[in-house]
Amino acid sequence: MTRARWTSGEASDRDEFNLTRVFFFAALHLGVLAVFWQTNWMAIGMAVMLHVICGGLGVCVGYHRLLTHRSFKCPKIVEYAFALAGSLSMQGGALEWVALHRKHHQHSDKDGDPHNAAEGFWWSHMLWVLHTPTNENWRAILGSILLAVGLYFLGGWPFVVWGVCVRLVATYHITWFVNSASHMWGYKNFESDDLATNCWWVALLSYGEGWHNNHHAFPTSARHGMKPWEIDFSYYFIRAMKTVGLAWDLYVPSPEKMKEKLAQKADLIAGRFSETAGKFSETAEELKEKFSETADELAEKLSPPTAEEPA
Ligand SMILES: [Zn+2]
Ligand SMILES: [Zn+2]
Questions:
Q1: Nearest CA to 146 among 211, 88, 220?
Q2: What is the mean pLDDT of residues 294-311?
Q3: Residue among 91, 96, 113 nearest 216 (CA)
Q4: Residue in 159, 135, 138 with CA at minimum distance from that of residue 147
Q5: C-alpha 44 to ligand 2 mean position (Å)
Q6: Ligand 1 centroid to 177 CA: how many Å?
Q7: Backbone region of residue 137 per phi and psi (left: phi > 0; alpha: psi in -120 to 50; beta: other values)
Q8: Strand ranges in 61-148 using DSSP code E only, listed in sequence order
Q9: What are phi and psi of 257, to 5 degrees?
């Protein structure tokens, strides 16, 4: 099956179970266990740095905010650098990632959404990846193999274990948490017809991507953290790029647009209240009727029999 399925609007096909990916993810998770005998501070530092570059800049800023949603513009060479960094997170090539994610926004939490959160935590977290009928991106795979070899020559097995296994497993689960936890737990600033939420701990781990209700409300916004406490490292980085002239045309919704969305939420809440109030008054009417019927019946039963007419 090719990627065409995901661009044709069809729902996912559960028969497309990809066993190779099961082995790949299992091996990667098992590789993490090697930290018990392959660890040093340099290796940990290398993993953090690669996580920031390939996950934070590559996936969050590059694949997501720049290539999928075009929330800002930058020189082509910078765009390629982001795409290269993103491909080293082994989440597929940029084109495929963008197509899948656009599908997610188009059908959020409904049929046709690759990681429909309405189907439960595990499906939206990682099971969908094992069933996604996409092509493997050999250039991205080759890039990661070269990176692993380079890491081995730089710092031996600790660098490979931390820079590849630990870093990739962390990046995968953090990305997947955006699709699972940030469609389940947290709060909503804006009303939406999907399950997306603002989940603070996902936002902290994912460089701001966990402010997901904000993101679904304004998908093309470069800024996902809308309130002062909603820390958004990806946006801070884009702002820094703008300051040095490497980014321009940043789209951020105006306060008026946000107020409009908030007013929609207020309307919806008011609507729900009046609906509930309507239901209460209907029930009260029904109860009143039933009471008066029962009272009539009782009065009939309790009233003394009328004296018989003497013959
Ligand atoms: Zn989402
Ligand atoms: Zn998005």
A1: 88
A2: 68
A3: 113
A4: 159
A5: 30
A6: 10
A7: beta
A8: none
A9: -60, -40
